[in-house]
Amino acid sequence: MAKADTNIVVDHGKSQWSDLWTKEDYLAIWLGFLVIAVCLVAYLGFAPKADFAQKINAAKQIQASETERAPFKTIAWYKADQAKELKASGVTAFGKFMSHWTKHPGNWSTNPVDAFVQSESRAKAMNDKAMPAYEEAKAKASAALVVATQAEDAAAGSSFQDQALNDEAIAKISDWRAAEKKVASAKKKVGNKAYNYIPTLIVLCFFMIVFFGCGVFMMGESFTGFAKGFVVVFLVSVLAYLLGGQAISKQYGFGAEAWGVLLGMIIANSIGTPKFALPACKVEFFIKTGLVLLGAEVLFSKIMSIGIPGIFVAWVVTPVVLITTYILGQKVIKMPSKTLNIVISADMSVCGTSAAIATAAACRAKKEELTLSIGLSLVFTAIMMIAMPAFIKAVGMPEILGGAWMGGTIDATGAVAAAGAFLGDKALYVAATIKMIQNVMIGVTAFCVALYWCMKVEQDGTEKRTVGVGEIWHRFPKFVIGFLAASILFSFLDSSMGQDMSSALIDQGAVRGGTRLLRGWFFALSFAAIGLSTNFRELAQYFKGGKPLILYVCGQSLNLALTLTMAYIMFYLVFPEITAKI
């Protein structure tokens, strides 16, 4: 009996099977995989795979022939490469259906109505206005093609033995490609069509009510109560998309995520969130389902494309920063809440909101602590996605190094892509890939935090508490399993199809034409729900002495320094040959 008093064994290993269809984490997995299954069946079963394969093989033959003929990538090689860029979402009925029924308010400048409705006359007027620039871009591209062709022919005339002629051809081909990109950019501005997104949004709202309402019902809560409140959450999300699409807001990186939290907080702390809306503020349910879908975008082939340099930047620096920031918060800053300390540390070091949600679930952080962490992350993400590209350009930092630095430090995946695109294609590729590699740390972080909290933090210090495997499993956020399973499934499909076919059916089909469209909405709903359920009076106690802000700034400063150092060492000193191939 005495032994039982001094060794408390906690074991949830014999959890009821009913958890599989009544608990939030499992329901997030089932709903996420329902979306994944529908998208995979639609694209793998109904896309014109034979036609795609024929076009891809023909393009590959041209590229192989050109590679043997010339020591550099010729005009024909690049045209063949472009011919391989097929998009299943653009040629299938399902892709067009998903694109139409998941629309959110578009971009606008002075009249917010333009984000919802555009008439035929206005679309024509916009196209007519943009047409001269488009025609001019096409003319320049045609002239650049003539010059590039002449330079390539001159190099071919010397059997590609004259390096000066080869270099001239490479330069002129590069100029032609740059001109073609300007054509593609100008073409988007003459593709305006009439639209009315209001019916689309109404149908989407109804779908979301049924989709998440079924999960809420399975958890034993009222479907009707959720449906009534969800309309408020959805409207705030729509308004957040509207403000995020405004020209100035978009320019400064203040997107729908930040607006959702801000608008929700304004409502909650002014007129007050309607009581009937609170049952629909399912912050974690929305974002956990979205995170399962995010797993479809984390492919092992992408991880390996950057190789060891990217892995070192993402998987070595990240845990060092996380652990150091946590210790700093406890030993130096004296954070009163260990859970707030670890959630901020994971949010800032791993990948923002996604890691914060997983970590908060693992350590049982309070809702207010999670909200505070996410708020800090959104503010600094908006600042960094603008400031970092500007700084990198100002100091003349190499594009690849800048991309690696941003990929390892800016929290949100979308913000990383936007910042990388500002620098260039290589920076975008490196930044997005490193962020994708870093996303894998979500599951690892959640498991390690659950283990540490059970084995160390929650020990009372007087009596040794034996913690079984079941307790660690009980603490571990199960939705992370869905995230990892989706990643493994899509990585397997990607590797079995080949790069080009996978790009057409998986990346440009099931993901961009399916799971990503809904994931964006799920995240928007979660941020709106965060704001609507946040009370400033409840948050005030966590801001005492400004410690959370000090912790975030110190941790992010360390993250910036270590990531830049590691990126430079890996990409330019240890593995320069990999950098040269990017």
Brief characterization of the structure:
The protein has 582 residues and is mainly α. It has helices at residues 2-6, 19-22, 24-46, 49-69, 75-83, 93-101, 120-157, 163-188, 198-218, 223-244, 247-251, 256-268, 283-294, 300-306, 308-315, 317-331, 338-351, 353-363, 367-395, 399-409, 413-423, 425-439, 441-457, 469-475, 479-497, 499-532, 536-540, 547-574, 576-581; strands at 117-118, 195-196.
Q: Strand arrangement, largest sheet?
A: 1-2
Which structural class do you get from the secondary structure elements?
mainly alpha
The N- and C-terminal alpha carbons lie at a distance of 66 Å
Low-confidence stretches: 1-15
Work out the number of β strands.
Answer: 2
Count of alpha and pi helical runs = 29
Form type? globular
The share of residues in extended strands comes to: under 5%
The main β sheet shows up as: 2 strands, antiparallel
Please, could you describe this protein's structure?
- It is a single chain.
- The protein has 582 residues and is an all-alpha fold.
- It folds into 2 domains: 21-102 and 119-194; 198-581, no CATH class.
- 76% of the residues lie in helices and 1% in strands.
- It contains 29 helices and 2 strands.
- The chain has a two-stranded antiparallel ribbon.
- Helix 15 packs antiparallel against helix 28 (547-574).
